[in-house]
Write a structure and sequence with these properties.
Oligomer: single chain
Number of helices: 5
Strand content: 25-35%
Helix content: 10-25%
Number of strands: 15
Strand order of the largest sheet: 3-4-5-6-10-9-8-7
Largest sheet: 8 strands, antiparallel
Distance between the termini: 145 Å
Length: 434
């Protein structure tokens, strides 16, 4: 059932008292609801944060437009102010929460409709991913090339002459195979080379020597640094490289020979006491004993460098059983000057040792059947450095290093035979001689 609202005619006799402007627009039903809604919105605006007030104002305008549309549909017009009424602006009064009592016919439409104020729901904003720079592409790193090895050191004497190697290697007659049972790191990378400094003799020096040796003769200068003195029972010859002494045989039977150690000591004392050596005298060995004649041949070598395999420098002394020296040949340096030289690699040295480019030292007396037709296996268990002579006696001479591979051999079923292999080792050196 719809109800039409008819405005009453104004009463001329009793004019209506003036009332606030806002009460003119207070309407039953929808008007009251709108007023209450405005109050709620105002409260919500003051309670909301500063960031939400703009959104609430927009929503409030939308709600008021909706209420105006609802009022126009229900036919509830706004009363217009008459010309007689004077509109006087009054201060905005405090709003009282009052609900007008509806007339009986308008009870259904005068219910207070509570429209909830929509709470703005924050719109979830997807966080934009922070762009990250892609890692730089992996750069392939070329493997570092090993640093080139430094060339072997060349010492103060420049390139060395060929090493004087022994001849008659056992490898020339025996078929041998080789096993390496040691570390090649045993072979050093450097070694000393020694220049031989010869003594410069004078006639006076040789005359004094001849007197000590029992040579009762005048010294003859033969030129070129060579001298000779020949007596009735002994003679001596001296050159820049060699001393030779000979005592005439008396023909008397010699006493029996003492032990080897005593023979070596006798020979050493004779050399030192007569001033026939420059650098120190090292160990010696008896190379031959002749019991029938009562004579022994003793060889001695300089104390430094150790393990000289060449015949030079050395002193060969023949000693009788009574301690008398009957003969001697001495090639002895007055002094030695050393310099460091680099060696060839141990791998190259070992290759030379096994391919016939070294001297294989096996004594024939250790082989029951001799060298001819023999075959065997060599097991190398240690290594080191030895020395040999290089250069000519007419020019400069040096003691140069050679690599030594030592072990044992089994030849034709006989084992435990000592063996040494010598290979020239200096890098700055011409090929071996011998």
């Amino acid at each position: 059932m719809s109800t039409r609202w008819t405005p009453e005619a104004p009463r001329a006799q009793q004019p209506e008292p003036s009332q606030p402007k806002w009460k003119k627009y207070l309407l039953p039903g929808a008007g009251a609801a709108a007023l209450l809604l405005v109050v709620i919105v105002v409260v919500a605006i003051f309670a909301a944060s500063d960031d939400e007030r703009d959104d609430v104002d927009d929503e409030t305008d939308d709600i008021e437009l909706a209420l105006d549309a609802e009022a126009s549909e229900t036919g509830t017009p706004e009363p217009e102010a008459t010309q007689e009424e004077e509109v006087t602006p009054t201060p905005e009064p405090t709003i009282e929460m009052t609900t007008p009592t509806p007339e009986p016919d308008d009870a259904a439409e005068s219910e207070l409709v509570m429209i909830p104020t929509p709470t703005p729901t924050p719109i979830p904003v997807a966080e934009e991913p922070v762009p990250t720079e892609p890692p730089p592409p992996a750069t392939a790193t070329a493997p570092e090339e090993p640093a080139p090895e430094a060339p072997p050191v060349t010492g103060d004497f420049g390139e060395l002459p060929p090493a004087d190697m022994p001849s008659g290697s056992a490898a020339d007659s025996i078929s041998l195979s080789f096993n390496l049972d040691m570390s090649l790191q045993t072979i050093p990378g450097q070694a000393s080379v020694y220049q031989i400094n010869r003594r410069q003799w004078t006639a006076s020096d040789v005359q004094s020597m001849a007197s000590r040796l029992g040579v009762n003769a005048d010294v003859v200068d033969q030129g070129g640094g060579s001298f000779r003195a020949e007596g009735s029972s002994a003679s001596v010859y001296v050159s820049p490289t060699t001393i030779q002494f000979v005592r005439s045989s008396s023909g008397d039977s010699a006493p029996s020979l003492p032990g080897n150690d005593q023979l070596v000591q006798t020979a050493r004392s004779w050399l030192v006491d007569n001033g026939l050596t420059g650098v120190g005298v090292g160990s010696g060995q008896v190379l031959d004993r002749d019991e029938s004649t009562g004579r022994a041949f003793v060889q001695l070598k300089p104390a430094e460098p150790s393990r000289i395999i060449s015949g030079t420098p050395s002193a060969g002394v023949t000693v009788r059983g009574d301690g008398v020296v009957t003969e001697a040949t001495i090639t002895w340096p007055q002094s030695l000057t050393g310099s460091t030289y680099g060696l060839r690699s141990a791998d190259n040295l070992w290759a030379d040792a096994t391919q016939g480019r070294g001297f294989v030292d096996i004594r024939a007396s250790d082989l029951p059947g001799g060298f001819q037709g023999a075959s065997g296996t060599v097991s190398i268990t240690s290594g080191g450095i030895a020395y040999t002579i290089a250069g000519s006696s007419q020019g400069s001479q040096y003691l140069v290093p050679v690599a030594v591979f030592s072990g044992t051999a089994t030849v034709n079923g006989t084992g435990g035979i000592p063996v040494n292999i010598y290979v020239p080792a200096a890098a700055a050196q011409a090929g071996p001689r011998g």
